[in-house]
Amino acid sequence: MAEEQNNQIVRDSMEYDVVVVGGGPAGLAAAIRLKQLSAEKGQDVSVCVLEKGSEIGAHILSGAVMDPIALNELIPDWKEKGAPLNQPVTEDRVLFLTEKKAFKSPVLPDNFHNQGNYIISLGNVARWLGEQAEALGVEIYPGFPAADILYNEDGSVKGVVTGDMGVGRDGKPTDNFQPGMELHAKYTLFAEGSRGHLGKRLAERFKLTEGRDPQSYGIGIKELWEIDPAKHKPGLVIHTAGWPLQSDTYGGSFLYHLENNQVAVGFVVGLDYSNPWLSPFEEFQRYKTHPAIREFLEGGRRISYGARAITAGGLLSLPKLTFPGGALIGCDAGFLNAPRIKGSHAAIKTGMLAGEAAFEAVVAGRQHDELTAYPEAFEASWLYKELKQARNFKQWFKNVLYVGSLMNGIEY
């Protein structure tokens, strides 16, 4: 057991080949790919996933449109294995809103075409990925957030330490104190999501953002509704721009019709807005009163709600992905494709690429160096090509809404 000696906490430690921080799509994809390769090559590689939520999927806002391209690569027989991708997209609509009216776009750029995609509960998909990971031998520890980063004497990342429990308001241990545990790894993959607190420290320590465009952030507010079955249109995807936001404020909304008479409705506002009185939450409440949106929600009931940060800078704002002893994957780096309003497929792909690089390094006997094969594989992938096409999205929206919409439409 860990004990306190001379005011220094002595912690238990566990050794792994790879530790993954975060049990979302990116982290779980990395863990799954590592174990797949371990089985295929007959090389035992130990993998651990830390998840701060009480269970896998607990901290994921459900309701998203998912492109299955990366899942097809990770688990080709996902349908047979019961992955919860149950509702294919049946119709796409893009609306420009004024206060009382909605104008349907007569042309849909490629980024708004969702044929072959699915409306999902991302929380359910993450839970299913967790089951696949555990079946392959991944050790998953929910309810244990990574509180700090451990370093070797040479400055490389050694692993992480979980948070202490039983600490009083004064910051001192109580009678119920339980020290966190050290998890040591040859490589540590950070998949915390947007603005992960450890990812920010790593970026500062290893100067990962030097030479990159400044990162851009938004806030996404989302609600899950159960609506009148007569108003439910399974597979309908609606995106809007315009009211209630001013034309110089970046943002928009989505409304996705899932199965079981459920609708995910959300509102995104770029955090570079200049109006100090703007409240994204209040704008979302106004948005729901628009006749084109209200018609779906009237008579329904809200089941759940939440909000999260969104990393939206795209390819030009991506930090350096690797550092001695580890790498950033998924939204911890910022792989969201903002014009497609999709990030789960990118998260899965980057997790796979980092997992493959880590596996090669471990079986070669390396540790705590840089996984240079990961960014090299990314730059040769379909994901890089996709993000390169979208690289100017936020730059165009530095202009007013209609100019940004027109120029992005032309690019696509």
What are the main properties of this structure?
single chain, 412 residues, alpha+beta, D-Amino Acid Oxidase, Chain A, domain 2, 2 domains, eight-stranded mixed β-sheet, 11 helices, disordered N terminus
What does this structure look like?
This protein has 412 residues and is of the alpha+beta class. It has two domains: 3-66 and 126-214 and 314-392, FAD/NAD(P)-binding domain, CATH 3.50.50.60; 86-119 and 217-311, D-Amino Acid Oxidase, Chain A, domain 2 (2-Layer Sandwich). It contains eleven helices and 22 strands. It has helices at 25-41, 69-74, 122-135, 197-205, 280-287, 291-297, 344-363, 373-379, 382-389, 393-396, 401-411; strands at 3-5, 8-10, 13-21, 47-51, 64-66, 87-88, 91-97, 102-104, 118-120, 139-142, 146-151, 157-162, 165-167, 173-178, 182-190, 217-226, 236-242, 251-257, 262-270, 301-311, 322-323, 326-328. The strands form five sheets. Strands 3, 4, 10, 11, 12, 15, 21 and 22 form an eight-stranded mixed beta sheet that branches. Strands 8-7-17-18-19-16-20 form a seven-stranded mixed beta sheet, covered by helices on one side. A hairpin with a 5-residue loop joins strand 11 (146-151) and strand 12 (157-162). Helix 1 (25-41) runs parallel beside helix 7 (344-363) and helix 7 (344-363) crosses helix 8 (373-379). 48% of the residues are buried.
Outline the secondary-structure elements.
Layout lengths: L2 E3 L2 E3 L2 E9 L3 H17 L5 E5 L12 E3 L2 H6 L12 E2 L2 E7 L4 E3 L13 E3 L1 H14 L3 E4 L3 E6 L5 E6 L2 E3 L5 E6 L3 E9 L6 H9 L11 E10 L9 E7 L8 E7 L4 E9 L9 H8 L3 H7 L3 E11 L10 E2 L2 E3 L15 H20 L9 H7 L2 H8 L3 H4 L4 H11 L1
Parallel strand pairs: 3-4, 3-15, 4-10, 7-17, 15-22
Antiparallel strand pairs: 1-2, 5-9, 6-9, 7-8, 11-12, 12-15, 13-14, 16-19, 16-20, 17-18, 18-19, 21-22
